[in-house]
Amino acid sequence: MPRNFAELVDVFLSIISLIVPLIFSLALLVIVWRIVDTWVLNPGDQTKIDEGKKYALWGVLVLVVMSSLWAIIRILRESLFGV
């Protein structure tokens, strides 16, 4: 149980630091599956290819945002708490 605000924030950041890699892994898995589904399983279907391009673009954007979030949390944790 946290005894002050700094410990509460540290607990919160620790939980986020555990959740972000899990979400990152799941997002990467979904992106890889959509790419395989589009270009390996349905290579001639133009509708699937267009959908796959959309998923690939959004997938890369999501991974960049999540990586940035993880880096910001790490920077805050090191600068504020020295952990």
Write the layout of secondary structure elements.
Layout (H helix, E strand, L loop, with lengths): L4 H37 L4 H36 L2
Helix pairs in contact: 1-2
Question: Your description of this structure?
Answer:
With 83 residues, this protein is mostly helical. It has one domain. The protein has helices at 5-41, 46-81.
Structure at a glance:
By secondary structure, the chain is mainly alpha-helical.
| Class derived from helix and strand content | mainly alpha
Query: What is the mean predicted local confidence, pLDDT?
Result: 84
- End-to-end distance, in Å? 18 Å
Largest sheet: none
- Count of runs of 4 or more consecutive helical residues: 2
Instruction: Provide the β-strand percentage band.
Output: under 5%
Structure summary, number of beta strands: 0
Please give the radius of gyration in angstroms.
18 Å
The low-confidence parts are none
The domain tally reads 1
Helix content: over 70%
Shape, principal axes of CA atoms: rod-shaped
Order of helices and strands: HH
What are the main properties of this structure?
83 residues, mainly alpha
